[in-house]
Structure prediction request, 227 residues.
Amino acid sequence: MPIRADNDPRFSRRFLIMGTVAIGFALWSLYDGMVKYPAQRVRGFEEFKVDDKSLFEDPKVKALTVDQFERSADTKHEWAKYSHERGIKSIPEIFTQYVQAAVAGMVGLFLLSIPIRSRGRWIEASESGITSSWGQSFQYDQVELLNKRRWRDKGIAKVTYVDGGRRQLFVIDDFKFKREQTDQILFELEQRIEIERITGGPPEPLPGEYVESPEDVAAPASADEPS
Prediction:
């Protein structure tokens, strides 16, 4: 009977949360750069005109905006000192908000795309081999190596198999797929290949049974074991 491991909703939720937080930070940075900090500069500059009236006796200087004053006034260093002391953001600091928004936005969109792309995905073990919803599959007799170096810590096992004379890689990941069924699929795979082809860890116990100290069980090793 085929064993199918569907996409684990917990995997999707993690990335949805992280993606939402990143998008939220991007919007926050965008608001600061477009609204909050420019308004702060205008308000601060008006206060500067009142506090340093001697600099604005010329009506033409007094009519300048804060950006114009920074570009053209000989005494703009006074404004730079004033704004720094009061925490008023400069143009480069405002530009940084746009950079943060762009980076966080791209990261957020990428994180949100992961659960979207993973939706409906599955892997399945049958009597003859393992297949997946995205079309990748292999037969048990095509397996060259099963690398379990990251299985205990990360739940990742890498299957190297040969198809049409070319080596291919299939990843079994019990973080992305429902753990119980994924563990059963890995167990089924190990029952169908020679133990010499298993590296990086001991063969899995029967699902539902556990070995107290797996690291104490001798496991085959390979000098050219892939990472």
Remarks:
- Confidence is low (pLDDT under 50) at residues 211-223.
- The first strand starts at residue 3 and ends at 6.
